[in-house]
Specification:
The structure is a single chain. This protein is an alpha+beta fold and about 300 residues long. It has two domains: about 10-100, no CATH class; about 110-310, no CATH class. Helices cover about 20% and strands about 35% of the residues. A ten-stranded antiparallel β-sheet has the order 12-11-13-14-15-10-16-17-19-18. A hairpin with a 4-residue loop joins β8 and β9. It is globular, with a radius of gyration of 20 Å.
């Protein structure tokens, strides 16, 4: 397969782009394809060989990763796919993952710490401060740069980022860390639902650890507690997922993620069965030790409690 300057196949359902590269990022060209697909109601399907990797920003961009091995499969799920004449669609009678998806990763697996922050901002609030503090607290350095595609085009500047969010239609951004430990974040901004005014933020920060390293799970709540008290986030969820220390994604199963805990804005007396810890304006709920996927059920129960308490 060979990369070309535009779509390799264009139908009413999909735009298909072939990429024969070792690492496929959320490039400026792919960003453009995504905008065109959004405007025309198509799905962007990026087809790579099975030895390609993609970046986290591309994996969460809305593009569908199709892997060509002995047949086709979805790179992030292992679901077998087929070309139906208009798009790649799931194989109807498939009962298992694609064989290549079940092979070991090419690189050693280490733990990655994933922090997902949600916040609401007033119309005049500066943006990007939460990520600045989280990245500094967990990696020792603030972000190095930000942009709308990879490679990033801007040095980190919260004022410039804020101006972009308020004036540009593209409010999905990427930021990278400056420390020795790999770290990358995706930031999504959207107007708050009426009658509220301002901006809703969802930011996910991923930090890579080596195969012989461990995530300092016991330090996670205290570090989150060091976020400034002014304009605190609504929630911060922490979990551990297995993956490559360089944070690139292979089209293979690395293993399940497991929750550590959730910090929520406010003080709470429940729910029963959850250890709680005050962190300034936040309350920390311990979900697990980042070792068992079974504790995601506790996360589901906690979210149900927070919604009934008026804390989404």
């Amino acid at each position: 397969m060979q990369t070309v300057g535009g779509a390799d196949v264009l139908t009413d359902e999909a735009m298909v782009v072939l990429c024969d590269r070792p690492l496929v990022p959320l490039s400026n060209a792919i960003s453009g394809y995504l905008h065109e697909c959004e405007a025309t109601g198509r799905t962007l399907q990026i087809v790579t060989p099975s030895d390609s990797r993609i970046t986290i920003p591309l994996s969460t961009s809305g593009a569908q990763w199709i892997v060509h091995d002995d047949g086709y499969y979805e790179g992030l799920t292992g679901r077998p796919m087929r070309w139906d004449g208009t798009a790649f669609t799931p194989v109807p009678d498939a009962r298992d993952y694609a064989p290549a998806y079940r092979t070991p990763l090419a690189a050693p697996i280490g733990p990655t710490l994933v922090l997902t922050l949600k916040a609401s901002h007033a119309p005049d609030d500066p943006l990007g401060a939460h990520l600045h503090h989280l990245m500094r607290l967990f990696t020792g350095r603030p972000p190095a740069g930000w942009g709308t595609s990879e490679p990033l085009r801007h040095a980190w500047d919260a004022a410039e980022l804020t101006s972009h969010v308020h004036t540009a239609p593209d409010t999905r951004l990427v930021a990278v860390g400056a420390g020795d430990r790999p770290s990358i974040a995706t930031l999504d901004f959207a107007p708050l639902d009426a009658p509220s005014s301002g901006v809703a933020e969802t930011t996910t920060l991923t930090i890579g650890y080596g195969p012989n390293e461990t995530v300092p799970v016991d330090d996670v709540p205290s570090l989150i507690g060091e976020l400034p008290d002014e304009a605190p986030p609504t929630t911060v969820l922490a979990h551990i997922a297995p993956g490559r220390p360089d944070l690139a994604l292979e089209p293979r199963w690395a293993g399940p993620s497991a929750p550590i805990g959730l910090a929520a804005h406010g003080s709470f007396t429940g729910p029963p069965g959850f250890a709680r810890r005050p962190l300034g304006p936040l309350t920390w709920f311990q979900l697990g030790g980042g070792r068992s996927a079974d504790y995601w059920q506790r996360h589901k129960s906690l979210l149900a409690f927070l919604r009934t308490s008026g804390h989404d």
